[in-house]
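Reopening this one. Same input as before:
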Amino acid sequence: MKSLLISFSLFLLLSTSVFGQQTAKIHIGESSQIIIVGKSNVNKFDCDYESSITDREKAIIYKKIDNTLQLKNAKLRLKSKTFDCGGSRINNDFDELLEVKAHPYIHIDFNRIDINTDHYHVFSKISIAKYSNDYDFSIKKNSENRYVGEVEIDINDFGMEAPRKMMGLIVVDNHIKINFDLDLNIE
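Same output, byte for byte:
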């Protein structure tokens, strides 16, 4: 048993150096913001994430190949119930749309980042309710620790149907945007 443990430890040590994997510690600052932006045929709405991002300090594993970072454990977990859309009625509609009772979290897994001269191209998996879909989008570094970007998603891809209000007179657009303004300190 002891030799198995030593062999496994040696394998882990060698695989980290042989396969070029490295670890970085990410600190997500309290000033980080995530906003879901949508519109209807009458108005637009913003749903601000009103809670601290869970797991604000996280160790991720990455492997750099040319201008690409392959990522492991680079995830955001957001409490579905803590988005504020500006009023109790729209908040209730949004909670119902996200099925917050059955699915209390939205998960965003960052799988790969392509590094370009003026932006980062991010490849991710977004999980809302019981569905997951792959998305890619750009993020720009605005200042030393500020990373800003947005991803547009179609709520139909997550098994959701756009809400209709007032006997169908008000219809929410299927496409919404998730805006990121992240204060990241990377060690």
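So the earlier flakiness isn't reproducible anymore. For the record, The domain at 22-186 is CATH 2.40.128.110 (Lipocalin).
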